[in-house]
């Protein structure tokens, strides 16, 4: 068993006092739930249940008009059809602007952020490519050029490494200044960036354990940095493998990932559990949903996924079986 998982295992020990576990599933409602999101939902749900914890759902719907109320409702109906019952009220990021404004004010008050006047094109023309997009060249770090106006707010990064132990992906260390650069917390179009919103909401919802796709692994150090600046606790992280197609592209609307249908949730859940390397018995593939959940809850072993970042799923398989 990987060493990094020990702090999660400990929570099951009966000799220790009951520790609070609060997890969440946080989809972006840009369309119906697809197989990749189902994997994240099932993984985060099973981890929360395994720890007798609370499982919350949060809609990361800041990016209007890509996110719609219809898609959010559709995702919630799909979760229900799968027996993925969440605790507490669903939070919608689109309704939480005041909290993000307050966090930005705090960052401004400690001088952790600065206004940036650069256009997308100016940054593209002068930036180096980092591990997660372009590295901002620092043009506005010491003040906006004369005659220009601040459009976005950026966090000033430094060369101190941000380190954490991911429950599946092991030890992660990142130098934000060199590898990422000063990153945006409020965009030029007035929208708050994902990095700030997720940190504020994880703190508001008292999330202790974040279980999500490995596509967000590289952004975790930015979130930890913001947590430190804002005085928030850092939750434990577990990054599940993401589902990719045979060209190793993440499943998304762009790669035409088929929505997960609700006609036969047992078959889709069985497939999700197989992808999560849980080896569900074949006879449960088309059986009743409660029996499959019972098996999944009794047999959940997250450590089967240790070190796995991607899992290939053929689109034809999904189209045939789930819709
Ligand atoms: Zn700038």
Topology, element by element:
Blueprint: H1 6-9, E1 22-25, H2 35-50, E2 54-59, H3 69-81, E3 91-92, H4 97-109, E4 113-116, H5 120-126, E5 128-130, E6 133-135, E7 152-155, E8 161-166, E9 170-175, H6 176-179, E10 183-186, H7 194-204, E11 209-213, H8 220-230, E12 236-240, E13 242-244, H9 265-275, H10 289-299, E14 310-312, H11 315-322
Parallel strand pairs: 1-2, 2-3, 11-12, 13-14
Antiparallel strand pairs: 4-7, 5-6, 7-10, 8-9
The structure holds zinc ion (ZN).
Q: Describe the sheet with the most strands.
A: 3 strands, parallel
Series of H and E elements: HEHEHEHEHEEEEEHEHEHEEHHEH
How many strands appear in the DSSP assignment? 14
Q: Beta-strand percentage?
A: 15-25%
CATH architecture label name? 3-Layer(aba) Sandwich
- Write out the distinct hetero groups bound to the structure: zinc ion
Low-confidence stretches: 1-17, 317-323
Backbone structural class: alpha/beta
Instruction: Please bin the fraction of helical residues.
Output: 25-40%
CATH superfamily: HUPs
Mean pLDDT: 88
CATH class bucket: Alpha Beta
Can you describe what's shown?
The structure is a single chain. The chain has one domain (3-9, 26-322): HUPs (Rossmann fold). It is 34% helix and 18% strand. Helix 3 links the parallel strand 2 and strand 3. Mean pLDDT is 88; it is low at 1-17 and 317-323. The protein is α/β, with parallel strands linked by helices and 323 residues long. It has a three-stranded parallel sheet. The chain binds zinc ion. Residues 116-118, 139-140 line the site of zinc ion. Zinc ion binds at residues 116-118, 139-140.
